[in-house]
Amino acid sequence: MLLNDTAAVITGGGQGIGAAIARTFADNGARIVIGDLDEARAKEFAASLGVDAVGVGCDVADGDSVSALLDVAIASFGSLDVMVNNAGITRDATMRTMTDQQFDDVVAVHLRGTWNGTRLAAGIMRANGGGSIINMSSISGKVGFIGQTNYSAAKAGIVGLTKAAAKEVAHHAVRVNAIAPGLIRTAMTEAMPAAALESKMGEIPMQRAGEPSEIASVALFYASQMSSYMTGTVAEVTGGRHI
């Protein structure tokens, strides 16, 4: 029970990697607030966890919405100990065809959303004696992928944001780390054309896609005191892809 009696907020927690993180945290004793743009999905999933959990509608690109999400954690559980900035979208297109809106939407959700969550959670945590913030980057932010100038830019920006924020709040016992997943088996990857999936598999030394639970385990490590002397780091969970 590595997170016993802690309160954790997870954005984009209604499905995929976010849901896997929420379930792993719940299994380790945390009380959970699920933030998701789809409020009904957030509430339904929170109810399925079988622990103290609340589902809340949240648009991470809107600072007021994120602030309201964190207020729910304080009101429901009396603290905010762990913040996972996981919410994300994709709007893939080549630079030639990508619209300004597609670029702005992805940057707003991933980069501004992570900034909103990091800034607001850090403010609460520093006043309460510390906490752990976990930001979701991507291997795409390290190497860049065709058709993802928006996504790769945002995910690379999350790494820089994480390192800068970690330096700002370390002396307040607030730790800020990032996870960079590779190819993870989710509904999105399972819908990929077979040829594209095979091509990506050829880049992975472990010769398989990762499971959401394998990202959740790393998030658990960062959330817990097992990583108490780590801040500003980026864990690549990629099966060795692009090492």
UniProtKB/TrEMBL annotation:
GO molecular function, one term: 3-oxoacyl-[acyl-carrier-protein] reductase (NADPH) activity
InterPro entries found in the cross-reference section: KR_dom, NAD(P)-bd_dom_sf, Sc_DH/Rdtase_CS, SDR_fam
E.C. code: 1.1.1.100
Enzyme class: oxidoreductase
Domain of life: Bacteria
Domain Ketoreductase residue range list: 6-182
Keyword field: Oxidoreductase
A Pfam family per the record: adh_short_C2
PROSITE patterns for this protein: ADH_SHORT (PS00061)
Family note: Belongs to the short-chain dehydrogenases/reductases (SDR) family.
Annotated protein name in UniProt: 3-oxoacyl-ACP reductase FabG
Native source organism of the sequence: Gordonia rubripertincta (Rhodococcus corallinus)
